Amino acid sequence: MCVLFSVATSELVFQVLDTLVNDGAMLPEKLNSFFWNWREYKDDGKHPDITKRLQILERRYTRRDLASRFNRYVLNVGWGEWDEESREKRGKTRSRAKMLVKALASRIVRSPEKFNEIHHLLTPEKSAQGLWCFGEQLAQNDAGRIFLPQLIEVTLKAEHQTCLYGYLSELKKDNKDLYLATIDGFLDSERTAWLGAHIALSSDYDDNLFLKCLSVLDKGWISPQQFSSLLYGRSIDHVPKERLETLFQQINSHPSAESMYLLVELLDSIRFNDSSPVDSEFVFEVVSQSVPGDEGRDVMRYCQIWCLTKSFSGSTPVVFLNLFYTINKFCTDNDICH
């Protein structure tokens, strides 16, 4: 479409665009992307009449209703439009993207019934730059917290958490007790435990919530994979020794390959010393269950296990030495992990 329009200024092109704008089956992201790309990259200032007509057409399309505004301002915003630092580096003018999201959230809070017009758009299939910000701005304006239950229900139905996370990030600043009570409430139900664990384990460490996560893991309400969040940003460093010991023992009781893989990852991420949450025997028990088989050997997996084994090689029980040397020989033969 962009190539066609760059060489054609006839009425035919505008007739096609007008048809697309009025076509309910047309994907909003396609048209919104076209209009933005014209303004950002194609408009060289030499065709003011074309630019003006396109601006009028874009405004008509974007401002049809609340849903069309939400699509444009929240969902169909690319990084190049959203990030001010990126725009500054490219010599572009400041973007109004965040201001428009803020205004949209404020408008919905003033007329709560309008939430129903956009609630189905809160869980898009693709990532959306403005969705977290919209949830955050909604919380800033929602003094009565009337939108929190609605956001929770939408999130649980679609298992898409971005907007709710934005809302909760602001709620945590404003009312930490309510924030903690909300997450704690998620962990009280099998239906919502996955959401509570995901939020608790990807946020700043809270001992009470972590204990609840261990409890729901023990009940089988969540999978050990939920604790993979601890691998990011050195989050695991903030978890007390006794909690890690319990976690490792619980994951070890899940004999699946995925659980063993995660456990090796977690063990590989902690610092081993006299105050480590587990001893060498536990590590080698895990490692002995995790060595890849002869078929389809995973070189990176061998490398990780080799590094973990080497950490304990100085105090390894004799019964595990053959395992260490087997892994070491494989890595040496394949010239890895040196």
* Gross geometry: elongated
**Number of helical segments with 4 or more residues:** 20
- Rounded average pLDDT: 82
Report the biggest beta sheet as strand number plus sense, adding barrel if it closes.
Answer: none
Helix content: 55-70%
Strands, count: 0
Radius of gyration: 27 Å
- The structure class reads mainly alpha
Counting copies of identical and different chains, the oligomeric state is single chain
| Percentage of residues in strands | under 5%
Secondary-structure element pattern, one letter each: HHHHHHHHHHHHHHHHHHHH
Low-confidence stretches: 1-8
CA-to-CA gap between the ends? 53 Å
Structure, described:
The chain has a domain at 279-338. Helices cover 63% and strands 0% of the residues. By secondary structure, it is mostly helical. The protein is elongated, with a radius of gyration of 27 Å.
